[in-house]
Amino acid sequence: MKFLRPIEDNILAKFSKWKGESISMADRLTLINSAISGALNYKFMIYKWPVSLLKEMESATRRFFWTGSIFKNKLISVAWAKTCVPRNEGGLGMRSLRAVNEGFMANLAWRIMTPNTLASNFLQNKYVSEFGKFRSGVEGFRSQGHWNLPQSFRNTFLCISKDIDHVIIANASSDELIWMPCSTGKPKTKDFYDHLHPRRGVVNWGNKIWRKGNQPRIQV
Question: Which PANTHER family match (predicted)?
Answer without folding.
Answer: OS12G0587133 PROTEIN, REVERSE TRANSCRIPTASE ZINC-BINDING DOMAIN-CONTAINING PROTEIN-RELATED-RELATED
